[in-house]
């Protein structure tokens, strides 16, 4: 019978980094050790990763129709744009299935998806196209299939026992009863509540500028009233950890990669500092 005290190397971390553009989400991929592969859905991601040893496939909704169309009932909407965006998801799906069947991912230690915000948009575009509403606003019955599809993608990846790093964004929502403002993931429907079931570590990223040229990147590791979605499986971290990267040195092992190295040393009894 297995015992959890011996499970040091059984489970790998599944990171979801949530934060605004420019808060250092994508660059944290570079700090993780091992061979890396990334699916890029956000065109800005490559600007951060260029020059580093990360293999990737990019799926962007290019060549969209900019013709104005009415979104009123029976007016159709921008069908051409919806169809083209839908085809981007189909292209990714074919590529993903091909890589799964060929064992492509077996050679990698880290798999990234940047960002799930744009991936969810592409999934929704495909659902709308299937339902004959390409280019229209989503309706209630469009959200269920989108959530199921995204959940299945994540479950497929988590079953590989690879380190995962997904990036996403946060939006503000107001609770009408308490009047409290919450930071919640930009996600479809009940996925906001299901996130903790899909990822081992959910961090909110931030960037501070002291006005004197010093920029610090941090992750919030403990949830609070304003950002309840956060989850952390690394024991002993501070509520806010500095994950700033010194680009004059080797990037691997800094930032979140450094926190993982620290975690391993704590398990083995090495009391080295972070």
Secondary structure blueprint with pairings:
Layout: E1 14-18, E2 36-40, H1 45-49, E3 55-58, H2 79-102, E4 110-114, H3 116-130, H4 140-158, E5 163-168, E6 170-174, E7 181-185, H5 191-198, E8 201-209, E9 215-220, E10 240-242, H6 255-268
Parallel strand pairs: 1-5, 1-8, 2-3, 2-4, 4-5
Antiparallel strand pairs: 6-7, 8-9, 9-10
Helix pairs in contact: 2-3, 3-4
Write a concise synopsis of the structure shown.
By secondary structure, this protein is of the alpha/beta class.
- Which consecutive residue ranges, at least 5 long each, have pLDDT under 50? 63-83
**Taking strands numbered 1, 2, ... along the chain, how are they ordered across the largest sheet?**
3-2-4-5-1-8-9-10
H/E order of the elements? EEHEHEHHEEEHEEEH
Q: What is the helix content?
A: 25-40%
Instruction: Indicate the radius of gyration in whole angstroms.
Output: 20 Å
Oligomer: single chain
> In DSSP terms, counting alpha (H) and pi (I) runs of 4 or more, how many helices?
6
Number-wise, the strands total 10
Structural class per helix/strand content?
alpha/beta
CA-CA gap between termini: 34 Å
**Which strand-content bin applies to the residues?**
15-25%
The residue-averaged pLDDT reads: 82
- Biggest sheet layout: 8 strands, mixed
Q: Label the overall shape.
A: globular
Number of domains: 2
Write a structural description.
By secondary structure, the chain is an alpha/beta fold. The protein folds into 2 domains: 33-183, no CATH class; 200-274, no CATH class. It has helices at residues 45-49, 79-102, 116-130, 140-158, 191-198, 255-268, and strands spanning 14-18, 36-40, 55-58, 110-114, 163-168, 170-174, 181-185, 201-209, 215-220, 240-242. An 8-stranded mixed beta sheet has the order 3-2-4-5-1-8-9-10. Strands 6-7 form a two-stranded antiparallel sheet. It is globular. Residues 63-83 have low confidence and may be disordered.
């Amino acid at each position: 019978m297995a015992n959890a005290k011996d499970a040091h190397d059984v489970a790998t971390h599944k990171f979801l980094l949530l934060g605004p553009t420019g808060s250092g989400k994508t660059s944290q991929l570079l700090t993780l050790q091992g061979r890396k592969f990334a699916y890029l859905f956000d065109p800005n991601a490559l600007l951060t990763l260029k020059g580093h040893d990360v293999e990737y496939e990019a799926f962007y909704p290019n060549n969209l129709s900019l013709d104005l169309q009415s979104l009123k009932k029976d007016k159709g909407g921008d069908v051409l744009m919806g169809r083209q965006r839908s085809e981007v998801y189909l292209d990714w799906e074919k590529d993903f299935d091909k890589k799964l069947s060929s064992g492509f991912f077996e050679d990698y230690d880290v798999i990234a998806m940047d960002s799930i915000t744009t991936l969810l948009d592409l999934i929704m575009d495909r659902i709308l196209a299937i339902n004959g509403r390409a280019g229209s606003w989503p309706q209630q019955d469009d959200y269920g299939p989108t959530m199921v599809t995204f959940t299945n993608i994540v479950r497929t990846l988590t079953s590989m026992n690879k380190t995962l790093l997904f990036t996403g964004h946060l939006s503000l929502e107001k609770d009408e009863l308490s009047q409290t403002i919450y930071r919640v993931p930009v996600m479809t429907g009940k996925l906001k509540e299901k996130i903790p079931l899909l990822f081992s570590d959910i961090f909110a990223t931030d960037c501070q500028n002291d006005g004197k040229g010093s920029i610090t990147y941090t992750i919030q590791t403990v949830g609070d009233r304003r950002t309840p979605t956060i989850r952390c499986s690394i024991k002993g971290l501070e509520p806010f950890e500095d994950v700033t990267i010194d680009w004059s040195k080797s990037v691997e092992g800094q930032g979140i990669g450094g926190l993982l190295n620290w975690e391993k040393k704590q398990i083995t009894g090495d009391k080295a500092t972070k």
